[in-house]
Amino acid sequence: MAIREDVLVVGGGLAGMSAALSAAETGATVRLLSHKKSTLRHASGLVDCLGYSGDDGPFADPYAAMDDLPDDHPYRIVGESAVREGFDRFDSVVGDSYRGGHTDVNALIPTQAGTIKPTARYPASMAAGLASDTRSTLLVGFEGLSDFDAPLAADRLAAAGVPFDVRGVTLRFPKKFRADAKLTRYARALDRDEEPDKDRAPRFDGVRRALAELVRPKLDGAERVGFPSLIGDDRNDEVRDDLEERLGVPAFELAASPPSLPGVRLESRFLAALDEAGVRRTTGNPVVDYESADGAITTVYTDNNGQRVPYGADQVVLATGGLVGKGIGSSRESVREPVFDCHIPHPEDRYDWSATDAFGDQPFARFGVVPDDDLRPLDAAGETEFSNLRAAGSVLGGADFAAQKCGSGVSLATGHVAGERAGALI
């Protein structure tokens, strides 16, 4: 006997969770199937709308640039209103932990690599670090953190022409950790305000105070201070407020390459929203098969330690990700969607999948299922694959998510539309 829901969402990333929340809002019963933990924990925590298109960008107003996108881009299929509704849903989930919802204009966020990234929504922990802010800035790195060189990042930001003076220093964190310690170890030490090591900060109780005392002499007139994305985990706001009070200047986190703590924090908020909405979640078991009848999917099977577990639903949303997330598979001969075997157009000659210029327009970046106006995947003849299947997120073709900086926005918009329409048909 299959476990039945009104709507079944396959995929636990931003698109899948957005679809599940939209479907649940219609009153439908919803189950989300995810092979792995949410891909949000492997993200930067920044939420993009549209940053570039071809040689154009970075865009100040992403919405103003949408009409110039190709007709097969997911934004053109669902329309600007759906993009706005998707971001409205995001804002309702994250509350005041994120900024950017007050304007259509992209924010420019400094990264740990010393680059500037245009984005539509950003954690409150990064708000004091906007690149459009003219306040002089000190970047603080720590010995042993090989993925952030504060002086180098400062030099790169200065070379990029930011409108503020910026310097970088590298300090010893007040508490010593193992060489392979993760960022979460630093963050939790600040969360708990653990005792610093006496050989590093002999005069202070609490690692927060010790850190502030190490940084203060280095300010030298700087009007704000930036840290790697590790100033607290569960108590990020509290740690940041404490440091600001002790330093006398605003503190902010720099955007980090994924995986990052801001991504983990964002995942936690979406999981809490799913629980509150009554969405049932099944994690850790891959989808391995399905059954269909009369052109509709009837049953989806997951593998639980060699046992096939059946799930039935009236409507199904496919949100398994793109090539990076394994929602699209490829071999030397072909490109395929591995769950429902949906059609993915691609050149027969494998050498036509990519351009010779590594930084050029790469055809494979746009591989994905082709949807109709209702986000139902189409087969090679242009007919719907299944009448009750919709696709959302980066499994859709037509967009270069990495180059265009639109992956999060496409996930929010198409997830919202797919979930809402699936739930409305129950």
UniProtKB/TrEMBL annotation:
Domain FAD-dependent oxidoreductase 2 FAD-binding per the UniProt entry, residue ranges: 6-410
Sample GO molecular function, one term: glycerol-3-phosphate dehydrogenase (quinone) activity
InterPro entries according to UniProt: FAD-dep_OxRdtase_2_FAD-bd, FAD-oxidoreductase_2, FAD/NAD-bd_sf, G3P_DH_GlpB_su
Keyword Flavoprotein carried by entry: yes
Record flagged with keyword Oxidoreductase: yes
UniProtKB keywords: Flavoprotein, FMN, Oxidoreductase
Gene Ontology terms: cellular component: glycerol-3-phosphate dehydrogenase (FAD) complex
E.C. no: 1.1.5.3
Pfam families from the UniProt entry: FAD_binding_2 (PF00890)
PANTHER family per UniProt: ANAEROBIC GLYCEROL-3-PHOSPHATE DEHYDROGENASE SUBUNIT B (PTHR43400:SF11), FUMARATE REDUCTASE (PTHR43400)
Protein name: Anaerobic glycerol-3-phosphate dehydrogenase subunit B
Provenance organism: Halococcus hamelinensis 100A6
